[in-house]
From TrEMBL:
Residues 13-151 form the CREG-like beta-barrel domain. Gene3D superfamilies: Electron Transport, Fmn-binding Protein, Chain A. The lineage of its organism: Bacteria, Pseudomonadati, Nitrospirota, Nitrospiria, Nitrospirales. InterPro entries: CREG_beta-barrel, HutZ, Split_barrel_FMN-bd. Pfam families: CREG_beta-barrel (PF13883). GO terms for cellular component: cytoplasm. It comes from Nitrospira defluvii. This is CREG-like beta-barrel domain-containing protein.
Amino acid sequence: MPMPDAMSNEEIVAAWRSLAEQTRTGVLLTLRNGHPFGSHVPYLLGDDWSRVYLHLSRLALHTQHLLEDARVSLFLAEPDKPGKNPLALQRINLQGTASILPPTDMAYESVKQRYLAKFPQSQMMFGFGDFALWELRMQDAHLVLGFGQAYQARSTTPGQWQHQKPDTKS
């Protein structure tokens, strides 16, 4: 079976943005005793994939993990449906580090308002002392749009995607 041609950069950007709009929650991966630990979380993207915002409770295990080790990954996937090939679902895996976005930060109020517009049911939690906005500064992205359509990007050039060609060396 021949490999499909690489998509244009504009098509890739449109595809990952569409995927991010379809999915309001993702799997946050933190480190627990040196092992990956997954949690289901609502998220808000910044201007691109290199900034992600979460509103987390200090009581949650994933938040306790982040306070010990800031390394993080966020995994978003196209919803599975009957008739779809689950191995061909679109997905993106982002890796980076997390830190609390303090209320004194210039971006805090804007991020909070955008978060509440997306998740209005979170309004009450912004009044709870154990909740904080977290900023995930993502350095790497791995995007799969189907068979033979895997792409990578770096935060230094978040809009530039490189086709991940299979290794044909044996």
